[in-house]
Design goal:
The chain contains 13 helices and 16 strands. It is of the alpha+beta class. The strands form four sheets. Strands 4, 5, 6, 8, 12, 13, 15 and 16 form an eight-stranded mixed sheet that branches. Strands 1-2-10-9 form a four-stranded antiparallel sheet, sandwiched between helices.
Length: about 425
């Protein structure tokens, strides 16, 4: 493959389809041999994390913890085949695929300022819904505004430690004991189908263009080819769908909290701190060996972490660097980091995305008992609502690496900087 200079593995790296998860690879847009690979993005396109702050304290929430967990569970559709409750027609889906969060804003499911605090401002402009197959649209239509299953969750979290007071202040999460909500989800069946369709199309393109890889999972196409462009435009649609999805769930989470506390989401200061993507390919500009280059950066299980003063991060975070949201596993802590200049130079402005699996899903299912996993969470004082209890073992903390060790490694390497640590008090899972 015509790799540009290097492919990078981050501390949460583990094996995945095609590329490893926890991998960054960049290709030179000017090189006619350069490729785009769906295996370098992943099946859950724009799987990502959003953090919403509140002005509530743990003392406000603790007595209502169980009711709040139930309220979130009731409001946000969760589970493997879950269907959305926000009314969506085929015409709405077309518009959402093209417009991303601009659709959510137009339809009244998002605040204007939410978009400002979102990677790509919640909309990839190269999206072309005509490049998304009818099958992908059929899968995506009923699932808009749903959490899904697997490692996806909605958590009520509490600020446990603040490492960088200036950054925390800018984010509005600057009080120990402050309550936040973290939503981790992606593009559901639609994104999966977009990736599957592209892999089939690209196998034919590889034979035509004489591209050979040592593994079918590395199927790819020249960036400039019809297949390469089709994938990038369909992938942008799936990314937009994921941002709409997280916006819809933000709307539902705001409703759930408003009902419990009899105050409006505005009164509760339920603003989006930031929204990051973990699985995506984007055209970016970077300096490589003293040369300014336009690159197609694949991030799979890794997070963009741009430094202070970068033009693509919001005005609010120009002095601190881009917030980076690192979701823990069920019942473990999560982190907010910030991007650094060193990371921008050395990892194309990327850092880790979470804990990274230590056991396969199969191994977890056979070695762990779901009742023990649930009891362990309750013993930690964590309220839990799960749609598929049998899937809980796959997501148990024992199935993953230690997120603190992963974050500390990135901090020590200087590719991102610790700002805030959060611990969960309630978990809603598929």
């Amino acid at each position: 493959m015509a790799f540009l200079q290097r492919s990078i593995a981050l501390p949460d790296v583990h094996s995945g389809y095609g590329f490893a998860i926890g991998n960054v690879a960049a290709f030179d847009m000017k090189n006619p041999e350069a490729v785009v690979s769906p295996g370098g993005v992943g099946f859950d396109i724009n799987c990502g994390v959003r953090l919403i702050r509140t002005n509530l304290s743990v003392a406000d929430v603790e007595p209502l913890k169980e009711q709040l967990a139930q309220s979130l569970f009731d409001h946000i559709p969760v589970g493997v085949g879950s269907q959305g409750i926000i009314p969506t027609t085929a015409k709405d889906l077309e518009a959402a695929l093209e417009m991303g969060m601009d659709w959510s804003l137009r339809e009244g499911y998002s605040w204007a300022e939410d978009k400002e605090h979102c990677e790509e401002y919640g909309r990839m402009l190269n999206a072309d819904p005509s490049k998304v197959s009818a099958r992908a649209k059929k899968r995506g239509l009923p699932q808009m505004g749903t959490l899904g299953a697997g490692n996806h969750y909605a958590e009520i979290q509490v600020v446990e430690e603040i490492y960088d007071e200036a950054a925390a202040r800018k984010m509005g999460v600057d009080v120990t004991g402050q309550v936040c909500i973290m939503i981790h989800s992606g593009s559901r069946g639609l994104g999966h189908q977009v990736a599957t369709d592209a892999l089939v199309e690209m196998e034919a393109a590889m034979a035509r263009d004489g591209i050979a890889t040592n593994d079918r999972q590395l199927a790819c196409a020249r960036i400039s080819s019809k297949e390469g462009q089709n994938y990038l435009q369909a992938m942008a649609c799936a990314a937009n769908y994921a941002w709409v999805n997280r916006s819809s769930m933000t709307f539902l989470a705001r409703q759930a909290f408003a009902k419990q506390f009899h105050r409006t989401p505005d009164d509760l200061d339920m603003a989006v701190v930031y929204d990051v993507s973990h699985n995506i390919a984007k055209v970016e500009e970077h300096d490589v060996d003293g040369q300014h280059m336009k690159l197609l950066v694949h991030r799979k299980g890794s997070t963009r972490a741009f430094p202070p003063h970068h033009p693509l991060i919001p005005v609010d975070y120009q002095l601190t660097g881009q917030p980076v949201l690192i979701g823990g596993t069920m019942g473990t802590c999560s982190y907010v980091l910030t991007g650094t200049e060193k990371g921008f130079r050395e990892t194309f402005g990327s850092t880790c995305h979470g804990a990274g699996r230590a056991r396969s899903r199969n191994n977890s299912r056979h070695k762990l008992d779901y009742q023990q996993v649930l009891d362990a969470l309750k013993a930690k004082g964590i309220a839990i609502r799960v749609a598929s209890p049998k899937l809980v073992m796959e997501e148990a903390p024992e199935s993953y690496k230690d997120v603190t060790a992963v974050v500390d490694t990135c901090h020590a390497a200087g590719i991102s900087k610790k700002a805030v640590k959060l611990r969960p008090i309630a978990v809603v899972k598929g």
